[in-house]
Design a protein that fits this description.
Number of helices: 5
Strand content: under 5%
Radius of gyration: 25 Å
Number of domains: 1
Oligomer: single chain
Distance between the termini: 85 Å
Structural class: mainly alpha
Length: 156
């Protein structure tokens, strides 16, 4: 076999090795992306379950939250509103994270839609009772949520 043929075969084998390496990296990247999405989804669900567990553990807090969700927060005294504000702020922290994960493509739009509805309902309720106070969130999320919620109609 001539040296030219050997070089051609070695070049072909090297190119096939590079191609196999690229395919392997693409598969690994996809698996890492799926793992990141799963972790983000699990994190959001865990945080949501934690906040909900506070409501399950405290009957009075749960009743106050239910009144708030019905739009009856005016019936609550300032101490009840202050306690309720921690729950609301915790949910907004989760919503802000969900928005961030969605903007990075880590969670799908269909998953974000589940949060978007809750964000708009909370925005409406907060706007109805100034005692709840300011909610901490990123400027980008605050601007986005205001614009996004203009399209929602809750039959009010």
């Amino acid at each position: 076999m001539s040296m030219d043929k050997v070089n051609k075969w070695l070049t072909l084998l090297a190119n096939l090795g590079v191609l196999a390496g690229i395919i392997f990296l693409a598969v690994e990247l996809q698996q890492n992306t799926n793992a990141s999405r799963t972790d983000a989804y699990l994190q959001l669900n865990q945080e949501t379950l934690e906040v909900r567990s506070w409501l399950v553990a405290d009957d009075e807090l749960r009743r106050n939250y239910e009144e708030y969700l019905r739009g009856n927060s005016s019936q609550l005294d300032q101490d009840e509103i202050s306690e309720l504000s921690w729950i609301i702020r915790s949910f907004y922290s989760i919503y802000d994270s969900a928005y961030y994960f969605n903007s990075l493509g880590i969670i799908a739009d269909s998953e974000w839609d589940r949060f978007a509805d809750a964000v708009c309902r909370q925005n409406r309720l907060i706007s109805e009772d100034s005692r709840i106070g300011p909610i901490q969130m990123s400027d980008e999320f605050a601007t986005f949520s205001i614009e996004m919620c203009k399209q929602f109609d809750f039959g009010l």
